[in-house]
Amino acid sequence: MATKVGMEVSVAIGEVVKLTNTDVIAAYPITPQTHIVEHLAELVADGELDAEFIPVESEHSAMSACLGSAAVGARTFTATAGQGLELMHEVLYVASSMRFPIVMTVANRALSAPLSVWGDHSDAMAVRDTGWIQIFTENGQEVVDNVLCAFRIAEDRKVLLPVMVHLDGFHLSHMIEPMLLPEQSEVDQFLPPNQYPLPLDPNKPVAMGDFGPPIIYSETKWAQEVNLRAAKNVILQCWKGFGDTFGRYYSPVECYRGEDCRVLLLTMGSFSETAMTAVDKMKSEGKDVGLIRLRLWRPFPFDEIREAVKNAEVLIVLDRALSFGGPGGPVCSEIKSALYQADNRPKIVSFVGGLGGRDISVAGFEEIVNRGIEISQTGSAQEFEIFGVRE
Question: 71 and 192 share a domain?
Answer without folding.
Answer: yes
